[in-house]
Amino acid sequence: MESMTIIINDPPYGTERAWNALRLALVSVSVAVKSKVNIFLLGDAVCAAKRGQDTPVGYYNLEKMLCDLIKAGATVRACGTCLKARALGEEDLIEDVGVGTMMELAKWVKESRAVLSF
């Protein structure tokens, strides 16, 4: 199965880049496309994996989108250095989102058919 890596740098809310990246990821893991999807959260994007988000009714919720992606088979990592800079730890993250490293991201980039950065 071909794989793609999506790198997200933008904060979860305030712009639509993270939302659009996750929309693309959801389509990519769908039955119609069947790609293996890796998502790496860098900088303020690590906050997208924060457990317990409470968005207004009718507004997209990136925690829910990430949970749906993980259930569909995507692998999600949040940069450990970026988490530490924001006083976040693994216990603050959605279940099954791991703390990632640059080495892991470098391997994903090397192995992926496509690498997209948002």
Please give the CATH architecture.
Answer: 3-Layer(aba) Sandwich
Give a count of the beta strands, DSSP E runs of length 2 or more.
5
Q: How many domains make up the coordinates? A: 1
- Rounded mean pLDDT score: 95
Helical region count? 4
Quote the distance from N terminus to C terminus. Answer: 23 Å
Shape: globular
What does this structure look like?
With 118 residues, the protein is an alpha/beta fold. The chain has a single domain, classed as Hypothetical Protein Ychn, Chain: A (3-Layer(aba) Sandwich), CATH 3.40.1260. 32% of the residues lie in helices and 20% in strands. The protein has 4 helices and 5 strands, in the order βαβαβαβαβ. The protein has helices at residues 17-28, 62-71, 80-85, 102-111; strands spanning 3-8, 36-41, 75-79, 98-100, 114-117. It has a 5-stranded parallel beta sheet with strand order 4-3-2-1-5, sandwiched between helices. α1 (17-28) links the parallel β1 and β2. α1 packs parallel to α2 (62-71). The longest helix is centred in the N-terminal third of the chain and has 12 residues, at 17-28. It starts with a strand and ends with a strand. The model has no long low-confidence stretch (mean pLDDT 95).
